[in-house]
Amino acid sequence: MLAQFLQFLYSGMTVGSAYALAALGFTIIYNTSGVINFAQGEFIMLGGMLAALLSAGGIPLPLAIIIAVLVTCAVGAAMEKVAIEPARDAQVVTLIIITIGASLTIRGLVQIWLGKGTHTLAPFSGDTPIQFLGASLLPQSLWVLGVTLLVVGALAWFFGRTLLGKAMLATSNNRLAAQLVGIDTRRVLLLSFAMAALLGAVGGILVAPITYTSYDAGIMLGLKGFVAAVLGGLGGGVGAIAGGLILGVAESMTAGYISSSYKDAVPFVLILLILFFMPRGLFGAKISERV
Fold first, then answer.
1. Beta bridge partners of 94
2. In terms of Cα–Cα distance, which of 39, 208, 48 is closest to 114?
3. Which pLDDT does position 201 carry in this prediction?
4. What's the predicted TM-score (pTM) here?
5. How far is Cα 70 from Cα 67, in angstroms, rounded to an integer?
6. What is the per-residue DSSP string for 49-68?
7. Cβ distance 204 to 75 under 8 Å?
8. I need a labelling partner for 18 at 20 to 30 A (CA). Which of 54, 197, 207, 239 fits?
């Protein structure tokens, strides 16, 4: 029984780490603009798809990953410049609708360009399971967990130690005050979209060897990342990480002990419960008045 529980726990923590990275992307953009970016799932898909196709085309895996991340960051920045910046004075609801339109556009272009097929990425360090306390753990799962921890640490350093990170925090706290002290908030918003795209691409690349990827893989991953962000308390980085892990474990336990048919229903049940009983999320992050 313990081995079975640990097996489900490992699986949940692995997928939950990907949700956490997606949730961090939602959180970064929300903090700087008050916008929920529903194209975040497409960044996840794009990173995984590009890395898989580049690797299959003979490009060494490390180089394929770097190119996939850079291209996805460029797409995120281009989306902000082309779609968000021209409408920056519009209402938040309008901006959210624009992100939905951008999501559909990216997905459609990828479908035309890369096709509808399913693609896979080779595991980073083999696929021989590691036995730990009676349960099997894939080496790729360790990559997912380890890289997620590194990303969280890097973000903590960036926001706490760098001038640009502090400028982003200032913009998230009070955009007008940040402008008055000379912070270029348009640059901050552009950076926030690029960073969200980077986080999405990293998450998509990490889970591609486990879950495979396709042009529509970002739909559910994006929605679940949003649920994780709301679950932890939209606007808080710690809450985003916790929300992703909680959601991943809840899904895994539901699939293991009840039925895998109900796995995808878990996020929507959780978000309904959270919005009904704890609208500020588990960690009580204050929801911005702009929403």
1. none
2. 48
3. 93
4. 0.88
5. 5
6. HHHHHHHHTT--HHHHHHHH
7. no
8. 54
